[in-house]
Amino acid sequence: MVRRIGCYVLIAVVLAFFAVPMLWLASAPFDAKPGLGLRWPDWTLANVSATFDHPYALTSLVNSLVLCAIATVVTTVLAALAAYALSRVRIPGRDLLLYLLLLLSSVVTGTAAMVPIFVLMLQLGLINSQFGTALVIAGGMLPAAIFILKDFMDAVPRSYEESARVFGAAPRQVLGHVVLPVARPGVATIFVWAFVNAWGNFLLPFLLLRDVGQQPAAVLLRTLYDEGGSADLSVIPVFSLLYSIPVVALYLFVSKRYGFRFHGGVKS
Amino acid sequence: MDSSGLGVRRAVAFVAPALVLVGVFLVFPALWTLYIGITDYQLTGPAAAHPRVVGLDNVVNAVRDPLFTNSVWLTALFVLGSAVVGQNALGFALAWLLRTVRPGLRRTVEGLVLLAWILPGTVVAYLWFAVLSRDTGTLGVLLGSPQTAWLVQYPMTSLVVFNVWRGTAFSMLLYTSALAAVPPSQLETARLMGASAWQTVRDVVFPHIRGHVLTNTLLISLWTANDFTPFLLTAGGPNHRSEVLPVLIYRQALESGQLGYASAMSLLLLVGNLAIALVYLRLLRRRA
């Protein structure tokens, strides 16, 4: 009994630890005098209109969407193609390639490689290019995406493809009509994972997109804090909320549809 | 012929686009760090147009630079405190405790922990400003000491606590799926024999999940060592007291314009990452 109570007390403490910081996102956006702290708000919607009036707020959300869409689609499509081929065909050097991909995905990070990436894009004239930045983000996510997807592709029974081929399906049809539908949970996992990662990515757009008209929400939100000496608190809370909605919505969708669990991908 | 009917040539064509992107934006920059790291390349000035090769001077200077050694020490503290100990322990505790509680409560706790993990970094930084800031910050108000500016007076402790909050979700998920693989009959036996919770975890559960602990510790250590979010919270300050390596590299490269010198530091970070990963792969192979 004592143990049971102890267990619930511990859970309550953890619950408070995780919940308290988030309450600000519910109160400050609708407070007439928003501050960096938690308090019961004087309800108002003035901050919302102030945010919509901000010259770059909506632009930056659109930029985020563009950047994120390119990076996510490129990652998912290229990773699916590569994972399928690596799962089914013994390309010479495949095992070495997979080992290197595993090593790369964990060792070479955007942070560790930020200087050469910046210099590379500077010399290619791709500073301020959204497409270029999206490709850099995709390049960073691809090794892990291929690795996780290969596990899902390995789990698709080969007999399905063989029967499809007996009926005369071309390799493209086999992939499109047989393999991808069966491996859909894996593809969806990678899609969501890539989206959340690209949506929240701060460092790479911060390095590579110097023009405020090109910057995504992650960078603009930071600029609102630094510029003009003090934080612009009528805009920041509402903007934070708007910027968080897509990932929260995606999370709710995923946990309803698939349940937020590890399966396949992670092995002991 | 393989089951998919692809053939080697088409398979290579499927893999190639991904490999080109990885090659250009990941492998090439990593290798290029080696070259930039031995030059005096700068963002502006004469050394920007014609960088000179200075050999290993950058690496030698970095190792002797008190800012660099300070930063290595802070990074080690950050990884050890928030990942190896903090996220590991809290993630396991949550996975263990939540097995037995009502599904509604379980979903609520898991949902909040996951939300902390997936919210964008810049948003999360503001959430923690609201907790830790002076005068109005939630923590100061709760503890009755609103004058305390936590991020200024205790910058590293703040970052460690923050990162436990931010990253525990991954450990929780991983340990939840690992615990599902522990045979219930063994847990039942331990219970009937009157084993305490600690004894059960140590003697029954741990042998089953050793591999998961290893994998988890490796991944969260690498992520934490390469995490740029501390920049958003403290930007390395005050007076370099929370300047972990990623922040130091950024400030040296983009704020001071010392691209060559910063590259040498990146190189040392990459070597550190590689060392951790290789030790892990060695351990994993020995187990197999």
Structural notes for this entry:
The complex is a heterodimer of chains A (268) and B (288). Chain A has 268 residues and is mainly alpha-helical. Chain A has 2 domains: 2-44, no CATH class; 55-257, Orthogonal Bundle (MetI-like fold). Helices cover 71% and strands 0% of the residues of chain A. Chain A has 12 helices and no strands. Chain A has helices spanning 2-27, 46-53, 57-88, 94-107, 114-123, 130-154, 158-166, 171-182, 184-200, 203-208, 217-226, 236-257. In chain A, helix 4 packs across helix 6 (130-154) and helix 6 (130-154) packs antiparallel against helix 9 (184-200). The two termini of chain A are 35 Å apart. The relative contact order of chain A is 0.13. By secondary structure, chain B is mostly helical. Helices cover 76% and strands 0% of the residues of chain B. The longest helix of chain B has 32 residues, at 66-97. The model of chain B has no long low-confidence stretch (mean pLDDT 89). The interface between A and B is large, with 96 and 99 residues.
State the gist of this model.
Chain A has 268 residues and is an all-alpha fold. Chain A has helices at 2-27, 46-53, 57-88, 94-107, 114-123, 130-154, 158-166, 171-182, 184-200, 203-208, 217-226, 236-257.
